[in-house]
Q: What sequence folds into this?
C-alpha cells in the first residue's frame, strides 16, 4: 500500500468521525449556549485531563484505557455539576468555573508528572491519525445517543431552558434532564478528544452553535444550522490540514470561527448587516 | 366541596415566616382575589399553593387535585427570552402535565394549541420567537399555555402588571369564562377596583388574614384601614409572630 492510499484512508476516517461529532455535538452546543452554559464545554474538556492522566498511570498509553479514564472523569464532573446546580448560593456558571480551574490544575500536575510533552500536546490539540475503528464507533455511538435523547426529551430540554419555573411547578424531572444533558456533552467530548484534541472538540461543539443563532429562530432550526456549519467547517479543516500537513483540530476550529464571522456579518437574524440603518425605510 | 383549603398554614423563606396561620378556603369554581399591601405575603401564598414552596407548618388541601390540575403563572414570568423557542413551543409546554416526558403530541393536542392561540388573539404569530414579541404578546402566549393546561385550579400572580388596557381587557374576558367551566381561579392583585369588578371572593392579607369572604365585605373601609395599620408596623425581617396572645419564633418549631 502506498503512502497516498494510507493518507486517503486516514482522511476518510477522520472525516467520518468529524461528521459524527457534528451531528452529536452541535445540537448540544445550541442547548448549552441558549442556557447560558457556554463555559460547560470548556469545563468538561479540562475535566477530561486528570481522568486521562490517571488512566495513563494505570494502563499506559492504551487508547481504550485513556478513553475510559476520560469518560469516568467527565461523568464525575457531570454528576457533581448537576448536584451543584441545585444549590442556590452559587450561580451555575460560577460553580463550573470552580470545577474547570481545579480540574485543569489537577490535570497539569498529573500529566506533567506522568507523560511527555508530546503526549500533552496530542491530548489538547489532537492527533487525527488516532481515529481508528474503535474511535469511530465511539463517535458514532455518541451521535446516536445524542440524537435519540433529543428526539425523546426535546420538550423537556427546551422547557427547562426557556421556563424552569414553569417546569418546576409542573413537577418535571429537572435534575434528571440536566444530568442527561451533561452526560451527553461528556460523551461527545470524549469521542472527539483523541483525534481533534480536548480543546478543539469544544470549539466544534460551541462555535457552530453560536453561529447558528444568526440563521434560525427556533431550536430545531438552530440545531440544523449548527450541524451543517460544523460539518462544513470540519471537512474544510481536514482537507486544508492535509494540504498544509498539520493536525486538523485547530484548522477545523478556525474554519468554524470563519463561519461564525460570516454569520455574524451577514446572517439573516440580528447580524451586523441586519442592524445597519436601512436607508429606504428612513426615506419612506 | 371546597377547592383549596388552608389548615393553620405558615409559609416563609429560610425559616422566616411570610404568612402566618392561615385557616380557611377559597371558593370552588369562583374567581377569588388575594389582596394586601406590598410584602403582605400574597405571592408567597400563591407559590405555596402551586407547590413551589413547602409550608413551614400547617398544610394545604387541594381536595384531590394533582399537580397537573394546577396552572400557575408567576409574577416575574421567568421566561428566558434569549432561548431559541417559538411561541408555539412555549404554549405547547402546557401539555407537559398530560403528556409528560415521553408522550407524543396528538392531533387533538394540536387543535387545542391552535384554539388557545385564537382565544388570546395571537393566531398567525405561532412561529415568532419568544424574543421577538412584546411583553403583552408574551403574556397572551402564557395565558394560551394556561388554556392548553386545561387545569381545574388556576393561579395568577399580578397577571395584568405592565400590560396595556386592550390586552388587560382581552385577558379579563378570558378569565371571566373560567368559573362557568368549573375552574377555580386565584388572582393576586394590588388593583382593588379590578378585584371589585372581577372577583366575588377576596382574601385580604397582611401576613395574616385580615378578612376573608365576599369581596364587598372584605374590601370595606374598616378592613383596609386595619390592613394598612398592620403593614406599617412591620419590621423588615420579623421572625416572631404574634398569635393567640403569645409570641413564638417559627424557626425552631420546624
A:
Amino acid at each position: 500500500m502506498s503512502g497516498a492510499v494510507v493518507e486517503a484512508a486516514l482522511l476518510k476516517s477522520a472525516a467520518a468521525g468529524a461528521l459524527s461529532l457534528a451531528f452529536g455535538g452541535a445540537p448540544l452546543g445550541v442547548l448549552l449556549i441558549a442556557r447560558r452554559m457556554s463555559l460547560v464545554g470548556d469545563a468538561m474538556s479540562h475535566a477530561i485531563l486528570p481522568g486521562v492522566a490517571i488512566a495513563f498511570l494505570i494502563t499506559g498509553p492504551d487508547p481504550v484505557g485513556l478513553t475510559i479514564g476520560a469518560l469516568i472523569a467527565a461523568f464525575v464532573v457531570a454528576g457533581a455539576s448537576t448536584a451543584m446546580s441545585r444549590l442556590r448560593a452559587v450561580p451555575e456558571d460560577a460553580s463550573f468555573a470552580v470545577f474547570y480551574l481545579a480540574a485543569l490544575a489537577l490535570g497539569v500536575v498529573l500529566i506533567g508528572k506522568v507523560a511527555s510533552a508530546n503526549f500533552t500536546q496530542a491530548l489538547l490539540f489532537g492527533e487525527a491519525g488516532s481515529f481508528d475503528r474503535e474511535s469511530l464507533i465511539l463517535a458514532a455511538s455518541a451521535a446516536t445517543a445524542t440524537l435519540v435523547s433529543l428526539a425523546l426529551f426535546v420538550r423537556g430540554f427546551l422547557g427547562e431552558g426557556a421556563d424552569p419555573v414553569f417546569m418546576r411547578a409542573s413537577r418535571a424531572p429537572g435534575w434528571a434532564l440536566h444530568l442527561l444533558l451533561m452526560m451527553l456533552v461528556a460523551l461527545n467530548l470524549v469521542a472527539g478528544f483523541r483525534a481533534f484534541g480536548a480543546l478543539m472538540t469544544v470549539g466544534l461543539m460551541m462555535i457552530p452553535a453560536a453561529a447558528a443563532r444568526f440563521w434560525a429562530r427556533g431550536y430545531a432550526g438552530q440545531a440544523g444550522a449548527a450541524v451543517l456549519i460544523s460539518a462544513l467547517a470540519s471537512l474544510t479543516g481536514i482537507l486544508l490540514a492535509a494540504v498544509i500537513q498539520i493536525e486538523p483540530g485547530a484548522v477545523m476550529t478556525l474554519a468554524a470561527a470563519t463561519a461564525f464571522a460570516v454569520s455574524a456579518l451577514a446572517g439573516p437574524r440580528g447580524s451586523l448587516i441586519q442592524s445597519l440603518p436601512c436607508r429606504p425605510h428612513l426615506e419612506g | 366541596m371546597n377547592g383549596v383549603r388552608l389548615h393553620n398554614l405558615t409559609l416563609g423563606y429560610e425559616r422566616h415566616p411570610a404568612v402566618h396561620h392561615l385557616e380557611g378556603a377559597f371558593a370552588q369554581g369562583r374567581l377569588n382575589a388575594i389582596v394586601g399591601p406590598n410584602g403582605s405575603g400574597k405571592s408567597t401564598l400563591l407559590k405555596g399553593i402551586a407547590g413551589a414552596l413547602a409550608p413551614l407548618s400547617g398544610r394545604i388541601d387541594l381536595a384531590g387535585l394533582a399537580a397537573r390540575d394546577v396552572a400557575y403563572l408567576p409574577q416575574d414570568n421567568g421566561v428566558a427570552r434569549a432561548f431559541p423557542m417559538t411561541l408555539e413551543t412555549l404554549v405547547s409546554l402546557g401539555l407537559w402535565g398530560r403528556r409528560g416526558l415521553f408522550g407524543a403530541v396528538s392531533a387533538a393536542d394540536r387543535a387545542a394549541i391552535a384554539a388557545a392561540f385564537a382565544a388570546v388573539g395571537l393566531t398567525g404569530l405561532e412561529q415568532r420567537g419568544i424574543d421577538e414579541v412584546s411583553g403583552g404578546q408574551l403574556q397572551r402566549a402564557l395565558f394560551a399555555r394556561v388554556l392548553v393546561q386545561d387545569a381545574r385550579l388556576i393561579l395568577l400572580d399580578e397577571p395584568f402588571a405592565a400590560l396595556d388596557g386592550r390586552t388587560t381587557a382581552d385577558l379579563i374576558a378570558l378569565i371571566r369564562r373560567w368559573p362557568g367551566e368549573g375552574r377555580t381561579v386565584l388572582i393576586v392583585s394590588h388593583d382593588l377596583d379590578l378585584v371589585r369588578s372581577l372577583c366575588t371572593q377576596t382574601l385580604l392579607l397582611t401576613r395574616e388574614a385580615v378578612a376573608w369572604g365576599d369581596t364587598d365585605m372584605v374590601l370595606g373601609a374598616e378592613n383596609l384601614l386595619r390592613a394598612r395599620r398592620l403593614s406599617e408596623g412591620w419590621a423588615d425581617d420579623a421572625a416572631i409572630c404574634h398569635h393567640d396572645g403569645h409570641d413564638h419564633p417559627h424557626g425552631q418549631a420546624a
In short: DSSP finds nine helices and eleven strands in chain B. The first strand of chain B starts at residue 4 and ends at 13.
